[in-house]
Design goal:
mainly alpha; 2 strands; 4% strand; elongated; two-stranded antiparallel sheet
Amino acid sequence: MSAPAVAPTSPSARFRAWARSRPFVGGLLVVLGGIELFCSGQLDLGNIRIQFGIEGLQATVIPIALVALGVLAVCSPAQRVFYGIVALALAVYSLIGVNLGGFVLGMLLSAVGGVLVVAWMPRASSEPADPEHDEGAA
């Protein structure tokens, strides 16, 4: 029989425990990639405004969708596979839809984040599911 888990007391320990229970790093990378795509899609160089796509609509919708998908992946880890696949597809599409994927940096951040969201698995509990098959039982 193992000792009962002690709840973390410090705020940083509570945050680490919360972040480990969800695809936090992947969601964060998807959000950062969306922010970078938004910033690169709204460039203004003096009299030249750089926007590609249908009147620049893609340069606004794709980054907002990526930020929303990153937040949803962190807040709702049960649907992480769906959010990660959609984020990965949008990240790859941003290569042609948003200034070469935010000059490739935003696309890479979002794609790596999407892959991490899909690949994340919750930790298995240390408690045995069936007490009759426990090796320590007599």
